[in-house]
Amino acid sequence: DARVTQTPRDKVTEMGQEVTMRCQPILGHNTVFWYRQTMMQGLELLAYFRNRAPLDDSGMPKDRFSAEMPDATLATLKIQPSEPRDSAVYFCASGLVLRDRNNEQFFGPGTRLTVL
Amino acid sequence: GDSVTQMEGPVTLSEEAFLTINCTYTATGYPSLFWYVQYPGEGLQLLLKATKADDKGSNKGFEATYRKETTSFHLEKGSVQVSDSAVYFCALKNQETSGSRLTFGEGTQLTVNP
Q: ω into residue B114 within 30 of 0, thus cis?
């Protein structure tokens, strides 16, 4: 049963600290998405990658957030320095996107981040 | 830009009641429409989808019909169960304008009481 995995599941940190969240997409999927969920803003797309290349990161604050895919089995989302307003649940999703095909995105369980 | 609007929640029903969660959208062209469900402490799961006008998506007793004339994709279930308690998200994907990006509605919290 293939699943998207995310670590850590919960992270509590202090303002100003660096936070790194990791995601392992489903093997064979070529597209990885990072979403942020808050009560106020709902679900927002931060960035997504196709074949490890960033396609769209317009939803991500560039001054403190960075997203990378060092290899096909790992995606990372880093916040440096973190701020209390970054507190949210961060979801990774992966999918196999082929030309003209509307394929499902499979979501991980999320990382709940609390910045004090 | 594209947007999705869901009926305000939360929604509380008794077991076996009929469920409707309204969803309307604004988009150019021909988007695909989705309903996702999020159980407590978990990520989102695809519940059903429809890729063109008049398509009906169905799964686990839930149904939604893609109505282009009313730009709607309302979710229905004839008889809800306690296990259906979750947050439901309507979403669209517009390949023409936004590629693989999903645009989500605000989510509707459903609680089903025994």
A: no
Closest CA to B92 of B60, B68, B69, B61: B68
Give the distance from residue B42's alpha carbon to the nearest chain A alpha carbon, in angstroms.
5
pLDDT digits (tens, 9 = 90+) for B2-44: 899 998 789 999 999 999 999 999 998 889 999 999 998 888 9
From the list B49, B95, B101, which residue is nearest A45 (CB)?
B101
Distance to chain B for A56, nearest Cα, Å: 9
Question: Which chain B residue's Cα is nearest to A3?
Answer: B43
Compare CB distances from B102 to A4, A105, A109 and report the shortest one's residue: A105
**Chain A contact present for B95, CB below 8 A:** yes
Give CA–CA dist B27/B92, Å, rounded: 9
Q: How far is A28 from chain B (nearest CA, A)?
A: 17
CA distances from residue B10 to A12, A87, B36, B47 in whole angstroms, order as listed:
29, 23, 16, 19
pLDDT in single tens digits along all 116 residues of chain A: 789 999 999 999 999 999 999 999 999 999 999 999 998 888 999 999 999 999 888 889 889 999 999 999 999 999 999 999 999 999 999 998 876 565 788 999 999 999 99
For residue A57, the SS3 value is coil
Nearest CA among B74, B27, B26 for reference residue B50: B74
Q: Which amino acid is at A77?
A: L
Nearest to B51 among A43, A56, A102 (CB): A102
